[in-house]
Design brief:
The structure is a homodimer. Chain A is an alpha+beta fold. Chain A contains 5 helices and 2 strands; from the N terminus they run E-H-H-H-H-H-E. Chain A has a single domain, classed as 434 Repressor (Amino-terminal Domain).
Chain lengths: ~80, ~80
DNA sequence: ACAAAATGTTAAGTATTTTATACATCAAAA
DNA sequence: TTTTGATGTATAAAATACTTAACATTTTGT
């Protein structure tokens, strides 16, 4: 049945837990534009692994804690 | 000093530990071409997070066990 | 030594990510 | 109420990932 997998993330939550970090602040820290953070946060597309690593690093989390690649209906 | 970070990976090793899986087999399993596996394995470029997840999933490992984003000189 | 399979390389094209601008909406603050 | 900062949306261009195809080199097996 070729279950459809989608990419989700906790960036928004992680930002808030990190002293209410704004999208712009996160973007600056990892060296991308605010639009990129925006698009990734909203799941508009799959970022490069490098950008994913940079984000995870800011929050001191492994990538799998920031991004989840799961079947759509997963809890 | 803006330490330079580079992306490394253990794909080659993981393939061998997985019943000597070839690049072509891995490519087929994750739905990309052999050249793509080749390029990623040799670190020619940073794959998309989605492809990274697919690879990690084949080996039943978290992404951070397959890819390392570290400073060049790191042991 | 030979054949076959696996890996490496290159080039050109397509697809996707990221940038850059610009503008709209909303909430908070002044 | 007006301004300001943060977020959302849109679009075009630039950069990068991925494909396709073809061929060269290395490794493995017979």
């Amino acid at each position: 049945m070729a279950e459809t997998l989608t990419l989700k993330n906790n960036i928004r939550t992680l930002r808030f837990f990190s002293n209410e970090m704004t999208q712009q602040e996160l973007a600056s820290k990892i060296g991308v534009t605010r639009q990129t953070v925006m698009a990734i946060e909203k799941g508009k597309y799959s970022p490069s692994l490098e950008v994913a690593f940079k984000i995870a690093r800011i929050f001191n989390k492994p990538i799998d804690d920031v991004f989840q690649y799961t079947s759509l209906d997963e809890k």
